[in-house]
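Retro notes, item 3 of 5
We never archived the inputs for the 6-diazenyl-5-OXO-L-norleucine complex last cycle. Fixing that now. Sequence and ligand:
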Amino acid sequence: MGAAGRQPFRALGLAVLLVATQAGAARPYRGGAVATAYPPASEAALQMLEKGGNAVDAAVAAAFVAAVVGPYHSGVGGGGFALVHDAKSAVTQVLDFREVAPKGASRDMYLRDGALVPGLSTDGALSVAVPGAVAGYLELLAKHGKLKPAVVLAPAIRLAKQGFWVTPKYQQMATGRAECLRQDPEAARIFLVPNAQGTPDVPPLGHLIQQPDLARTLGLIARSGAKAFYAGPVAQAMVKTVKDAGGLLTQEDLTAYKTRSPAPLETTYRGHRILTMPPPSAGGLAVVQVLGMLQQLRPQGVPYRDPESLHLYVEAVRRAYVDRAKYLGDPAFVQVPLERLTSPGHIADLAGGIDPKKATSSASLLAPVTGGPASTLKKDAGPLTPEPEKKNTTHISVIDKDGNAVAMTTTVNYSFGSCVVAKGTGVLLNDQMDDFAAQPGVPNAYGLVTGEPNAIQAGKVPLSSMSPTLVFAKEDPKRVMLAVGSPGGSTIPTTVIQAISNVVDQGMDVTRAVGAGRLHHQYLPDELWVDKWGLEPATLSALEAKGHKIRRVDGWGDAEAVYSDPRTDLRYSSSDPRNEGAATGQD
Ligand code: DON
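Structure as it came back at the time:
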């Protein structure tokens, strides 16, 4: 486009910028835009866009940097989910690169004398599932990227060598996992520093964490691809470290690891097409069901913070989490009646069961389907909520200048995963085994109850809450309008649902949509969580009067979102103000 041709666009851009600035909204970008939980990851993504890379190059560069600077959230020893939209073909593909249970895993591996052993599925070698992140990131690049792995991994390698500074978030996370990290000398050496007594402890703010071993591992991956991780010295070190510490990972497990590419889950919300993550995510189904119920219960829209409307939202969420507990598991192992669960008839039935006047007790929804899997759910399950400093995971959203989009959520599960580092490699391994129902019907680390379909089996993928989601423009169902996702364990789906509703129903700009207060219910425990930005006292009282038991929680989640305005083609990005991330883009 010549300079003259750009004038009207510039004038429009300026006008929008002024309006946006006056409203205190996010700034617009004419090129690609990115949101991640770490400034260096967003910067790396932006660099890829500037080098001519696309949304996938940017997202993968950010994911590798996240593995270096946010070891408490995600890493090459973890796994995740991505939705990738290719603007040219208008096709959206899903990549499931989540961890799988090792071959030696078995249903009761975390029980001793029939009782769950605390910590066994979250801390140490026995909690490690077969990692999928490296296979996933490289497959994304190979299938959809434009740049070479060496270019995309360069920022991560540099940061691993040069180091990054300890932030308040790092300290919070390391405090929560200090005891666990101390159990592994290699993890303690890398992520803690000796205190005056010589005990490995949480490093001070500004302390430089350098990871030369990880830099070497990333260098090998950049040169030789995923085989540098799944075979050879890195794989040998992972297997030996885990085995020596009493875990199950074998070379056979690593060799057998394969990603999966299921079709995305699809729904429509107030005229917007939505694509989200299918099982083994339970999050996408919750997004589909809750939005479906809200659309039916409130055809005219969702008034903001109106108690009647919030009550319907909470009741819809409660019911979606019941279905999760009853039916969901890895579809390669259990029959998930997905078609029925997403059908308008089923969603109408769920919505029809909601009493607009009062809260349904979760216990009353436990009546098992005759002979069905819910018969294993226990009425006294919960309450249990994870401590914030133990929660983790991270989300990356990118929409590039051409409209290609990525929503990727990736994790090592608990903060610092299993706290086990494969000796000499810098690879911090996940504790994703905890996302299985170690004892079907009994809550996991996130207080989540899952049933028999999510019982442990060798080679199975544990059920996840991660819900990377793409919302399309009303005007054009092939054009991505919003890429969004969040960490937060069990709270991930409700964080995503509220961000979408804030944009679609309230017309909020993406910064406000991500920052607004949140409410969460997950059926068990039977409590309504309200974050400190959530609700005014009168609204809380109105909800209490309907029978909701309210628990005030400081905050949760870390939504990362990019919005592309269908009318102006300008992009806006937003990183959750609750955390330390950064949203950026190309002018
Ligand atoms: O896949 C899952 O649902 C969990 N492993 C995610 C953990 C998480 O988000 C912790 N968050 N703050």
